[in-house]
């Protein structure tokens, strides 16, 4: 219900506000968050707006909550390229409905997605092994190193929302009764290491992870099908509450990840710049691969943006006008 209500609020500003008929792009402030996908997307926007549309765009580094709060209250930053709005529904719902903030486009076409994953090479051998019923019927397919007679489900560190959800879903599906144990990896690094070690050895692996991430750009992983639609009410009541004693079967939600712009920016800037932002959207596969390249090459957000623009004109030229595309290509 929360997602539906938020979606309705998001739709209003797109109708209510349109940019001025003619205007210079001018100065533009772009928010960059402290994670890789947001960093590279903010740099993509900066390069395209500056080189393609003659803007004077600069990046400011903010955290997720303070960036949205500042945009709502002060109209700055002008653009938040990657806002995970479902994490802050009370911050964005009212301003979106009132038109103080405008949702221009889903930054990620398939949304942010957490869940349980297995390696694709396991699915290639057994076409049903990504389904929860098949998984639970075969704990021997995912042997635990601590006790090979049991199957293993790798979990994140204490305190993560995904860790809580994994523990609750494990209770809901009675994984212990089906011969599995949930492995507390203790840290993000240990969780990453467990997946990487298994994948490089082509061994079984089952556990919690999410995308977009660089690790899923390096390793071809497949999400587990929990055989149920996401139940938002049950998620709020119990799946996401570690003290809830009676969790029901559920599945992870898809997070809405949107590009937000301030009303003042929409009203004053070049309409062509807004048209670009409305068209600019990419999928998790693209972002995963780009983040993997950045990690392997110790690349900055700007490095990653320039690599993407150089290597994938088949994607980004669809976002811009032909004239802007030629200017951007000439600048690379």
Q: What is this structure, in a nutshell?
A:
The chain has 332 residues and is of the alpha+beta class. Helices cover 47% and strands 17% of the residues.
Write the layout of secondary structure elements.
Elements: H1 2-16, E1 27-32, H2 36-53, E2 56-61, H3 64-74, E3 79-84, H4 89-98, E4 101-106, E5 112-119, H5 120-125, H6 132-137, E6 151-155, H7 161-172, E7 180-184, H8 188-200, E8 207-211, H9 215-218, E9 221-223, H10 232-239, E10 254-255, E11 257-262, H11 263-268, H12 271-279, H13 284-296, H14 301-311, H15 313-316, H16 322-331
Parallel strand pairs: 1-2, 6-7
Antiparallel strand pairs: 3-11, 4-11, 5-8, 5-9, 5-10
Helix pairs in contact: 1-4, 2-14, 2-16, 13-14
**Helical residue percent band:** 40-55%
What is the helix/strand order?
A: HEHEHEHEEHHEHEHEHEHEEHHHHHH
How would a crystallographer describe the biggest sheet? 4 strands, antiparallel
Assembly of the depicted chains: single chain
State the end-to-end distance: 45 Å
The residue-averaged pLDDT reads 93
**How would you sum up the global shape?**
globular
Label the CATH architecture of the largest domain. 3-Layer(aba) Sandwich
Q: Given the structure, what is the number of helices?
A: 16
Number of domains: 2
- Measured by DSSP, the beta-strand proportion falls in 15-25%
Q: Total number of β-strand segments?
A: 11
Uncertain runs are 1-22
């Amino acid at each position: 219900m929360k997602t539906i209500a938020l979606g309705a609020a998001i739709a209003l500003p797109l109708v209510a506000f349109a940019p001025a008929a003619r205007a210079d792009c001018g100065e533009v402030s772009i928010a960059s968050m402290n994670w890789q996908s947001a960093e590279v997307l903010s740099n993509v926007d900066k390069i395209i707006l500056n080189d393609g549309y003659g803007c004077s765009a600069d990046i400011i580094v903010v955290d997720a909550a303070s960036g949205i709060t500042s945009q709502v209250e002060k109209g700055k930053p002008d653009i938040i390229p990657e806002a995970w709005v479902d994490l802050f529904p009370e911050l964005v719902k009212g301003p979106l409905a009132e038109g103080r903030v405008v949702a221009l486009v889903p930054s990620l076409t398939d949304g942010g997605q957490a869940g349980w994953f297995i390696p694709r090479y396991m699915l290639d051998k057994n076409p049903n092994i990504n389904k929860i019923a098949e998984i639970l019927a075969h704990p021997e397919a995912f042997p635990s190193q601590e006790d090979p007679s049991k199957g293993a489900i790798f979990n994140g560190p204490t305190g993560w929302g995904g860790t809580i959800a994994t523990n609750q879903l494990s209770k809901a599906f009675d994984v212990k009764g089906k011969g599995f144990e949930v492995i507390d990896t203790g840290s993000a690094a240990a969780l990453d290491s467990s997946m990487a070690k298994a994948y490089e050895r082509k061994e079984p692996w089952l556990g919690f992870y999410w995308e977009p991430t660089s690790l899923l750009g390096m390793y071809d992983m497949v999400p587990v099908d929990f055989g149920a639609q996401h139940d938002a009410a049950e998620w709020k009541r119990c799946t996401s509450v570690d003290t809830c004693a009676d969790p029901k079967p559920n599945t992870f939600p898809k997070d809405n990840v949107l590009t937000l712009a301030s009303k003042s920016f929409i009203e004053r800037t070049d309409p062509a710049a807004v048209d670009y932002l409305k068209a600019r959207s990419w999928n998790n596969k693209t972002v995963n691969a780009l983040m993997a390249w950045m990690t392997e090459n110790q690349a900055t957000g700007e490095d990653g943006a320039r690599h993407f623009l150089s290597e994938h004109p088949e994607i980004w030229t669809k976002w811009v006008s032909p004239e802007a595309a030629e200017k951007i290509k000439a600048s690379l």
